[in-house]
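Exercise 7.
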Amino acid sequence: MRDIAARICRDYLTGAWKTIPAEDLQLRRISGGLSNFLYYVSLPEDHQQRSDTPRSNYSSGRSSSKRARKDSYSSMLEPKEVMLRIYGQTHGEHALETMLTESVVFTLLSERKLGPKLHGIFPGGRIEQYIPARALKTAELGDSKISLKVAEKMAAIHSLDIPVSKEPDWLWSTMNRWLNSMESTLKTLEKDQANDNKAIAGQEIITRLDFRAEVEWLKSVIE
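Solution. The predicted structure, written as tokens, is:
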């Protein structure tokens, strides 16, 4: 994975990322991705310190000023650390449509500074700005100050005019997919029980409930 990460960063990032060997990069897996693989990638610490130190230029003339401008420009664009996102499910029903929609939304949020900066999109994933953060704790979700900030950000996001489908079918299609998966799993469990295998915990309760009727009721309430 280190070689793959180095190749991707070398192709899409500027400055030192073009020359740093794969073995010198700092790489670690980040937990929290639901369907994607997330990796933290950064330049070596000693290189970051050198990059942060102003460079002296002892040559004179026009070439000197050009080099200084070029070094300053490269340093400004060169991130010291990034997050590498590798898409998990790239096949199956609506997988391509989902990836395209997500890429469009992420790009627009990045441009409007409503999300992490987008450093690059490649086949199978993207390179994002790494933001040291953590998920909110349960107790923090009830904090009115935090809730207000979240509401403001969500309102700004939902007010954007984004060139994707506006049909509100994600919730129902997702529920329908889960129902199909559950019914398929229950059929498999029934076959296993016919072969004298034990039932799983809660299987009897799940079998008694009419989840499709529950979904239809929810539709009638929301729509």
